[in-house]
Amino acid sequence: MISIDKKKLESVILKYEDEIDAHLSKVEKSLANWLKRPTIGKGVNIRNLNTEEILYLRFLKKSLSKIVKSDSNELERYSVLFEKIIPSGRRNTNDFIKFKDALLSRMGYSLLRSGNKKQSIKPFYPKFYADLGIKACVYCNSQLTICVDKGGNNKSAKFQVDHYEPKAEFPFLSISFFNLYPVCASCNLQKGDNSINFKLYSSRVHQNSELIFELEKKSLALFRLNKKESELRINFKGKASKEFNKSFDVQGIYETQKDLAAEIVLKSEMYNSSYKKALHRSFKKLYPDANIPFNRFIVGNYTDPTDIHKRPMSKFTQDIARDLGLID
After folding, report:
1. Which residues are registered as beta bridge partners of 155?
2. CA 270 to chain centre
3. How many Å apart are CA 50 and CA 39, to the nearest integer?
4. Contact by Cβ (8 Å): 191, 149
5. Helix, strand, coil content of the chain in percent (nearest 5)
6. Is 235 contained in some domain?
7. What is the pairing mode between strands 201-202 and 4-5?
8. Phi, psi (5° rounding) for residue 94?
9. For residues 21 and 66, what is the distance between their CA atoms, to the nearest angstrom?
10. For helices 258-270 and 217-226, what crossing angle results, to 10°?
11. DSSP string over 263-290
């Protein structure tokens, strides 16, 4: 719902560059071995790679590090180049699908996401995106970017990312950081391979998202009179709200959060300006050397617009709280 400065992502990539390069070295070795024995499949289903697929792999191997670390603009340039090798019109063929599946296995996306317990390899994405400050879905902001995966008799929590450009069509982008958006399982499923006009990583970052939650004024007045949560009507507004509703039903998700909206309204009535001043003075006496996030204490969530990715519901909470004057 709000973009992140691309420089922040680049700095986290730099922090983990040794680990990233170690993974890329394994991918390059796997691609090199594949090119030495250019076949796909097993048993009677085995076939040789065609000329286009070999060119695709050679170019990928040569450009792998840049593709994985480059920004969105550079990735668009690479997409044009790969399009010339295997045009989009031929990506729905059985041959390409088999080639794509074999390539994705060698790129190691699943290993980065889930790790490998047998080989004592821990997943990479959870710590990477924790350092980036993303724990909540970047599309709906209502859920964590974790899903529970059941493998055999075991269940495990796994980090969830959406491929902005779908890996089914663009397997060479399957581990490119600027193409990975941390999301909840629901939004990932809803979006599928569809596109959405939202760039998570940008050089043009605004302090506030143009998407806004607010309470309908008439419903707010009725709630203040009778304190019935059912009276509250939540509006989701902004230039891209129709697209977000169409793709993720954001309006529908937050219509279920009337109890949270009601709590914020009640807090706005209890925490008037004089009471907040008294509390603030008390906090300074109790914790004179601590940096107390006073507004977070009152609201119960992050209140800086640039922090909305750190916790679910923070965007909704701070929009309603700000609209009611509970926070500035």
Report:
1. 150
2. 35
3. 9
4. no
5. 55, 10, 30
6. yes
7. parallel
8. -60, -35
9. 11
10. 70
11. HHHHHHHHS-HHHHHHHHHHHHHH-TTS
What is the predicted pLDDT for the residue at 197?
87
Reported residue count of the chain is 328
Same domain, yes or no, for 270 and 317? yes
CA 323/CA 314 separation, integer angstroms:
14
Same domain, 135 and 31: yes
List all residues 6 or more positions away from 263 whose beta carbon is below 8 Å from its beta carbon: none
Measured CA to CA, the distance from residue 274 to residue 137 in angstroms comes to: 36
Contact 2, 305 (CB under 8 A): yes
pTM greater than 0.85 (yes/no) = yes
Residue 328 placed within a domain? no
The confidence score (pLDDT) of residue 254 equals 94
Q: Does 55 reside within a domain?
A: yes
Q: How far apart are CA 151 and CA 194, in angstroms?
A: 27
**Shared domain check, 289 and 179:** no
Q: What is the mean pLDDT of the chain?
A: 89
Kindly state the helix (H) or strand (E) to which residue 146 belongs, with its residue range.
Answer: strand 146-151
Distance of CA 109 to the CA centre of its chain: 15
* Look-up of token digits 């920004």: 71
What average pLDDT score do residues 250-261 get? 94
* pLDDT at residue 114, rounded to an integer: 83
**Are 19 and 166 found together in one domain?**
yes
Q: Which domain holds residue 191?
A: 4-202
pLDDT tens, position by position, 72-126: 999 999 999 999 999 998 888 999 999 999 999 999 998 998 888 778 788 899 8
